[in-house]
Amino acid sequence: MLGKNYKMSRTPRSKSYPGSLSDALGVQWAPRDLPMARRLQTLGAIGWISLVLFGEAFAIYLFFKLLYSQYWWLAIIYSVWMLRDIDTPARGGRTFEWVRNWAWWRYYRDYFPLKLVKTANLDPSRNYLLACFPHGVVCTGAFGAFATNAMDFYKIFPGMSCNMITLGGHFLVPFFRDLILGLGACTSSRESLLYLLDKKKHKGNCVALIVGGAAEALDSHPGEYSVILSRRKGFIRIAMASGAPLVPVFSFGEPDVFRPLNNPQDSWLRWFQEAVRRWTGISPMFPVGRGVFQYNFGVVPLRAPVTTVVGTPMEVQKNLEPTDAEVDAVHAEFTQRLVDLFEAEKHKYLKNAENTHLVIT
User: What is the pLDDT of residues 46-86, one digit of tens each?
Assistant: First the structure.
């Protein structure tokens, strides 16, 4: 199925008009005779990136629009209910399968296309902590694989369920919080992670954590694979405290979905991005992709295949109070397993695999 969609996803050449303004500016327009399937795929990608970039702002606007209308009492009722529900994201969340099954996600999947691959089975009687890399600009592959059912996670890993972890601040936005809760998202607090991995409360649960976080997004550039791991040890302590196996997950092609602005470490742009990230926890990215009707610029992601590979689980001995040396030992083993996964799989999914290396900072 995905192979067929991949053939469909190749961008057809638009007509060339020598001497025209478009030709002078180098603008490549989308053909008008595109198949309906491709138009729906593009619409799915537009909807997704609009949700990521503008979803929270639009939700806040809707809330205040409701608050200052004749139906203000509905906003008050919702606010009271939201306050009573404020702990749900840290207590297992509230997944609605019909939200994860929306047709929208399938069109989104086929646009790139996205693919989920397993290298080993997962035991439905156990819980797993999926440590996902790289973040990319907006976690394209991980979102499709673990926050929707479009990539058949339940079929590939029978008996398993999945919760994707995100920043707690997203759950303070009215209406938006209910959507991401429906997708299975939970907050990134220690309490939340340990609750999801508690084998007395759950079995067959996969907790997908983007280890590099927002900081890693700043180093996302096409063809480059740079991940933040050396200074990330909190997830190791979570795995040790719960006794849950660690599973390395890598999304090949993730950096190719956008062409962010050049932001070297000593640039003013990087300084601004780092300052905002420290203040808000969110990296202000300027994703450059394509437009709705042309292929040269815009915020619509590029049609670049992304394959999310789930590696072999790494057993972690339960230890409620590990020493720094014990944490470092588990961290070193996991780091090596991530490198091994990248090297073993890159030739299957990257065009310039021989010259592409994983950079760990």
Answer: 999 999 999 999 999 999 999 999 999 999 999 999 999 99
φ, ψ (nearest 5 deg) of residue 72: -55, -30
Res. 123: pLDDT tops 80: yes
Helix axes 190-197, 234-242, angle to 10 degrees: 40
Q: How far is Cα of residue 274 from the mean position of the Cα atoms in its chain?
A: 20
Name every residue whose Cβ is closer than 8 Å to that of residue 283 and which is 6 or more positions away in sequence. 214, 215, 217, 218, 273, 276, 277
Cα–Cα distance between 31 and 295 in angstroms, integer? Answer: 10
Encode pLDDT of 82-112 as tens digits: 999 999 999 999 999 999 999 999 999 999 9
- Which of left, alpha, beta for 232 (phi over 0: left; psi -120 to 50: alpha)? beta
Contacts of 118 (CB under 8 A, 6+ apart): 156, 157, 309, 310
Q: Which residues pair with 207 in a beta bridge?
A: 129, 163
Closest CA relative to residue 221, chosen from 267, 281, 271, 287:
287
**CA gap 181, 156 in Å, rounded:** 23
The pLDDT value given to residue 84: 96
Q: Which residues contact 105 (CB under 8 A, 6 or more apart)?
A: 44, 144, 148, 149, 150
pTM over 0.70? The answer is yes
pLDDT band at 6 (very low <50, low <70, confident <90, very high): very low
Residue tagged 């973040």 (tokens): 135
By the 10 Å C-beta count (0-12 exposed, 13-18 middle, 19+ buried), 168 is classed as: middle
Amino acid letter at 72? Answer: W
| Sheet with strand 161-166: strands edge to edge | 114-118, 306-310, 246-252, 128-133, 205-210, 161-166, 186-187
DSSP string, 146-206: HSSSTT-HHHHSTT-EEEEEE-GGGGGSTTHHHHHHHTT-EE-SHHHHHHHH-TTT-SSEE
- Tell me what the mean pLDDT of segment 134-141 comes to: 92
Residues 6+ apart with CB under 8 A from 308: 114, 115, 116, 117, 132, 141, 142, 144, 145, 151, 249, 250, 251, 252
